[in-house]
Predict the structure.
Amino acid sequence: MIKINALEEVKGNSKKVVEEEFENLANELKEKYNAKIKYVDDDIEENDNLKFYTKIGEFEINFDNFKDYIDFCLKYGADIEVIRPEKLKLKADEINEVLAFVISAFKSFVDTYKIGFNVYLKDKKDVDIEEYKKGRYDEEDIIDFEEDGFIRVKAVFEGVGKNEEEVIKNLLISLEREDIIINKIITKNFNENNDTFNGLIAVDLLCKPFEMFEIAYKYLPVALSIQRDEIELSLADIQDIGNELSGAMFELSHAVIMRK
């Protein structure tokens, strides 16, 4: 079971509306999650003769499983403090199901509102693509990475570009960093004439738990799965992943509101 304290905020220029919205939110959390209110605080901000009313509440919520916790993070965008457990072991099928759930949630949002995250491209550098195609590390190297807390992951990405080399380089440059180690890539180009690339890039990589979820929501891979029987998340992992996903979905939702 996962126990959290979730900080929820309702803000507006009408005190009555803020009160009503907060009450509706509190009732919804009580009904859906049997949430308990730990405290409620009111605040008034004045800016250019305008008053903004804020109501903040802290809720104690328990979840039976990791997927329900992640679902809450995506739906409510709360600031989260995880109380327990200190460690959480998840079977491969559990974590793979949650990763697929995260990808689906963000992909649905992007398809609906045409807003997503831009993947940052660092300064281009020389990349030996053939080295990545052969595989950069042997099994002993991979075991060493895993002992350092890395998780072996298989991911499949869609790629479109003027040629295979450009698509691969852009993916490698944007994806690889200190906590994401790319071992091997395999490509499939659906353009028979090969003058442009429109296909799939399968990547064998190693990463930390937080980065695994970052890849899921930022890159929206076709598939993403861990390559071991189970993984263990620390309390910090659970909290960081939850807050990251909450913040990411809130950011996209806010972008939609600002665009209207």
